[in-house]
Write a structure and sequence with these properties.
The chain has helices at 2-25, 56-67, 83-86, 150-159, 168-177, 181-189, 196-208, 216-221, 229-238, 247-250, 279-282, 314-323, 347-358, 363-367; strands at residues 263-264, 291-292. It has 380 residues and is an all-alpha fold. It has a two-stranded antiparallel ribbon. Helix 2 packs antiparallel against helix 6 (181-189), helix 4 (150-159) crosses helix 7 and helix 9 (229-238) crosses helix 13. It binds heme C (2 copies).
Length: 380
């Protein structure tokens, strides 16, 4: 009897200890929160969906996925394509006119089909609450839950024939077989089982870290450097109505993002055929020919310009605002000088405005290794 009690006791102790050791071998899912540091003077309202909080592990994984050509769902060298194929860090995460694969900077997808619009940069996206894309098709209150945020851009990029032309099941299955990735997904999302939703979440987290706030103009605002006389004159022109009159739509005056993230018809055309303008989203006739007033940060390196890439250089853009503005029923009322065909700048004023625009280039952003291609992929 005594013997039996002793055996039972031993069994209980054994069960208890094994259950303890079992518990301690399961790594708890505890990702580390990633704090976005809000640069001086930047808005404090951030667009981070509640179901995708920023974590260090998520951002790390997102960076791998952003750069990994196997995002195409394929492994053949000729069919690799990732976000970074088009969104290049050295061009403020646009293609740039010097992209080796896309002459003139107008990209095309894996199938050779060109994208319907020119590119947008991936920069300071976390402050955009009004809509991503030239016409703002992805916005937080969209009744369509699959069209609300950067997470959804990832799915769209994966599927679009003019981008990756992929298949979300094939893509997630491929990453499932690449050594190292399942473990990274576990750290970031608590499961080794890869889902396309988590692929989108990770890439979106990385995208939200792409913050540019150290241009010459920022340094000037912090009192660290002086602007030249020409740059200061250009800033004056940018922010005055009887000068260049740019600030209503592109910020710059108490708005360090250099975009309002809003949509305007800035007077380039009189006839509107594009089925992907702002009208396509709102159905409001006043939105014919309206597009996002894209940020002017790093604009120097992100040509060609406008949603259709019609201008190759910033000089051409300034000439347009100076004398090329056309009236139409839906032109933005903020194009105050349309009756004169534009703001009519002198050659000196154009040169000053251009030198000011050059102060918005942020080289640190475009070379920061944290945003660059990882040295090695998880399986290397
Ligand atoms: C084939 C080239 C190409 C690839 C690959 C690509 N993009 Fe883009 N991206 C574009 C173009 C073109 C636009 C402008 C789209 C529009 O609004 O018409 C864009 C726009 C965006 C925007 C909107 C930016 C803004 O300010 O509104 C985001 C975000 C974005 N892409 C993220 C991604 C992500 C993430 C990936 C990878 C999953 C990706 N893109 C892959 C070409 C590409
Ligand atoms: C009424 C609002 C408005 C005003 C005023 C305005 N812009 Fe724009 N800007 C826009 C819109 C909208 C776009 C995008 C239009 C498109 O793609 O068709 C744009 C595009 C641009 C682009 C190209 C962006 C890119 O990524 O391709 C540059 C550069 C630019 N504007 C500079 C200026 C300058 C300089 C001024 C002042 C001389 C100015 N803008 C005044 C609304 C405005």
């Amino acid at each position: 009897m005594k013997n039996l009690t002793a055996k039972l006791l031993l069994l209980i102790i054994l069960m208890w200890t094994t259950s303890c050791t079992n518990k301690s071998t399961v790594t708890p899912y505890e990702p580390t929160p990633y704090e976005i540091e809000i640069p001086f003077g930047f808005p404090t309202k951030l667009n981070i969906p509640e179901n995708n909080p920023m974590t260090i592990e998520g951002v790390e994984l997102g960076r791998y996925l952003f750069y990994d050509g196997r995002f195409s769902g394929r492994t053949h060298p000729d069919s690799l394509m990732s976000c970074a194929t088009c969104h290049r860090q050295e061009r403020s995460f646009e293609a740039g006119v010097d992209h080796p694969g896309f002459p003139g900077g107008f990209p095309h997808g894996i199938t050779g089909i060109p994208t319907p619009h020119a590119m947008l940069p991936m920069i300071n996206l976390v402050w955009n609450t009004t809509g991503y894309g030239w016409n703002g098709l992805l916005y937080p209150t969209n009744p369509n839950p699959d069209a609300r945020n950067i997470e959804d851009f990832v799915r769209m990029a994966a599927l679009a024939p003019h981008e990756v032309n992929g298949d979300t099941t094939r893509i997630k299955n491929l990453f499932q077989t690449i050594p190292g990735y399942p473990e990274l997904f576990e750290k970031a999302f608590g499961s080794k089982l890869i889902t396309f939703t988590n692929i989108g979440k990770a890439i979106a987290q990385f995208a939200r870290t792409l913050i540019s706030a150290n241009s010459k103009f920022d340094q000037y605002m912090h009192g660290e450097v002086q602007l030249s006389q020409s740059e200061l004159n250009g800033y004056m022109l940018f922010t005055t109505e009887d000068g260049g009159d740019c600030f209503h739509c592109h910020g710059g005056f108490g708005n360090p993002l250099f975009t309002t993230h809003l949509f305007y018809n800035n007077g380039k055309d009189t006839v509107f055929n594009d089925i992907r303008d702002r009208f396509a989203i709102t159905g409001d006739p006043m939105d014919h020919g309206a597009y996002k007033a894209a940020t002017l940060r790093n604009i120097e390196v992100t040509g060609p310009y406008m949603h259709d890439g019609r201008f190759a250089t910033i000089e051409e853009v300034i000439d347009f605002y100076s004398t090329g503005v056309l009236s139409s029923p839906s032109i933005s009322p903020l194009m105050h000088h349309v009756n004169n065909g534009g703001v009519r700048l002198t050659p000196q004023e154009k040169a000053d405005l251009l030198s000011f625009i050059h102060t918005l280039r942020d080289d640190e952003f475009m070379t920061n290794p944290k945003f660059g291609k990882p040295e090695k992929f998880p399986d290397e």
